[in-house]
């Protein structure tokens, strides 16, 4: 069968790979229908992702159908349509035993640390499959993207009426905005790009946006009666934003980093971090329980996936089209690849 492979950085090609094997104990063989592409895939393609090794079949945002199951599998059956939780955890380490499966000490993300789903079939632990009777494959492929924002918002645990500031309106920021809105918090979004902010206002129905710049703090003050933000979620992944974002936080606020930087962060402690007694949190991946919750929210219409799914491509066209999705002017929020059976 054919698969899409990053053979080495900058080299994406369609290759022949072995046919799938029958599922072992606790596993399911799945037919992949839809694969979402995100910044992690782009970074892996460009060779900018530290965890990536090559050659690698990418694809961790997956809408699949169960073909067959191995011994002991009871949560899914052939024909079930599922979203895949691509965070393969060991179930044995200290993190896993405490329920922090998102930061397993032996963690492997499908399509990053091990081969993913840009191929027609593969086997996966059945416990990583989350069934929906109603969602289309491309909606199921979007669940993982949403899970990143879901977990980040859960980390902050916003209360209704609190002011929650999301920094960065790229796909991770947008996913956080969905759950921030659902929490009942008052959501404010800051980004450098007015086009992205227009998308937030018009498509996600969040009216309060701020263009990043010298008077952003003043604007936040005006929107919040001078209180600033009870929760700041930094989804920029930019060193400068992550170093400076505390200035937007009110006293006793929570700050969550959901973007990633590989550089060291430097920020003032006594005048802001200490004086305001801020709580700083990282947010990595998502928990298993987030997946059925998100599926339910989409099924109930509380999350509208239509604005998200901006670009679609057929498997065979991916080598020619992939790099165009790297360009901001294409307006890509989520590109989804349709995978044929052969
Ligand atoms: Zn992703
Ligand atoms: Zn573990």
Please, could you describe this protein's structure?
The chain is of the alpha/beta class. The chain folds into 2 domains: 2-131 and 308-338, Alpha-Beta Complex (Quinone Oxidoreductase, Chain A, domain 1), CATH 3.90.180.10; 148-282, 3-Layer(aba) Sandwich (Rossmann fold). The chain has helices at 39-46, 94-97, 137-156, 171-182, 194-202, 216-223, 239-244, 269-274, 290-299, 318-321, and strands at residues 2-8, 11-16, 27-37, 61-69, 81-84, 87-88, 108-109, 121-125, 129-131, 163-167, 186-191, 208-211, 229-234, 249-257, 279-282, 309-314, 334-338. Strand 1 and strand 2 form a beta hairpin. The longest helix is centred in the middle third of the chain and has 20 residues, at 137-156. The radius of gyration is 20 Å and the shape is globular. The relative contact order is 0.15. The structure holds zinc ion (2 copies). Residues 89-90, 92-93, 95-96, 104-106 line the site of one zinc ion (ZN).
Q: What structural class results from the helix and strand content?
A: alpha/beta
Unreliably modeled segments: none
Based on CA atoms alone, the radius of gyration comes out at 20 Å
Mean pLDDT: 96
Bound heterogens, unique: zinc ion
Into which percent range does the helicity of residues fall? Answer: 25-40%
